Amino acid sequence: MPFALDSEVAAALAGLQAGDNGPETPAPRGDWRSRRALVNAMMAGLNSGQPEHADVVRTDHQVGVPARWYAPAGGGGGSAVVYLHGGGMIGSSVDHFDRTIAGYVADTGVPMLAVDYRLAPEHPHPTPVEDCYAGLTWLVEHAAELNVDPARIAVMGDSAGGGLAAGTTLLARDRGLPVARQILVYPMLDDRTTTDDPALAPFLGWSADDNYTGWHALLGDAAGGPEVSSYAAPARASDLSGLPPSYVEVGELDLFRDESVDYARRIAAAGASVELHVHPGCPHGFELIAPDSAVARRARADRLRVLKGF
């Protein structure tokens, strides 16, 4: 076998699987309800195992949809981030990522606005990305009262949220709203990724069947076809010029590896600065699976550095 799990990630996965009482067989392709239930249960459990960071101040707002402002106890000031959570386009919520987001704020002093965008299939494209863009515009409009420099606002997301962050950044470019940086953590970028690589299949926590289900929930029968918007699936963009400096991170054993690497390559080819990391032996969500592993600590250090650097 050409690939192997990072040893610390493998040990953590074994521990999680030992206590797993989930279904013995995967949900069939297209079954978004079962996947939503699984994603929600998993993310709620992972969130509850993280430090609470009670010193980070949370304030709920309406930006057209609910959003939560996370600020360090001292109030922060200067830069800020719009954070978009993962969940395959069909699941999860800001509540499920509450402690993850608070941890970033506690460790960097950079405040974040987490947008509870509406989920597919009840709310197909363009609703999710437009919800995220509404959060960005709200933060720009309220920058002065939040002690934020509107020229220093980044967009960040993981997994489906990484895809939405990329789509939001494309929307912002095309609508003339400056974004200081995009931070894409194992982003879900391409609706055409619906076949497992046999070499990766044993390691995938989010499979091609899962991906097919998420994209078809978002796009319906248009998924995989010729008319998909780049705001929904940023890998479809023919023009990546004019984007801000970008950070792209993905695991070697992630279904999204190739589309993430290609997106980073194309951003660089279009003339923007890109920092790309491909972590050997790491599946999707590796740092949530094994937060104390050496590779998770390295990845987190890189994210914190980037968050503090614009």
Protein architecture, described:
With 310 residues, this protein is α/β, with parallel strands linked by helices. It has one domain (29-307): Rossmann fold, CATH 3.40.50. Helix content is 37%, strand content 18%. β3 (78-84), α3 (98-108) and β4 (112-115) form a beta-alpha-beta unit. It is globular, with a radius of gyration of 18 Å. The protein starts with 6 loop residues before the first helix and ends with a helix.
Q: Tally the helices: what do you get?
A: 9
Please give the largest β-sheet.
8 strands, mixed
Structurally, the number of domains stands at 1
CATH architecture: 3-Layer(aba) Sandwich
Mean pLDDT: 96
CATH topology (fold) name: Rossmann fold
**Biggest sheet: strand arrangement:** 1-2-4-3-5-6-7-8
Number of strands: 8
What is the CATH superfamily label?
Alpha/Beta hydrolase fold, catalytic domain
User: What radius of gyration results from the CA coordinates?
Assistant: 18 Å
Kindly estimate the percentage of residues that lie in beta strands according to DSSP.
15-25%
Along the chain, the helix and strand elements come as: HHEEEHEHEHEHEHEHH
Shape designation: globular
Report the helical percentage.
Answer: 25-40%
Global structural class: alpha/beta
The end-to-end distance, rounded to whole angstroms, is: 41 Å
Quick one: CATH class? Alpha Beta
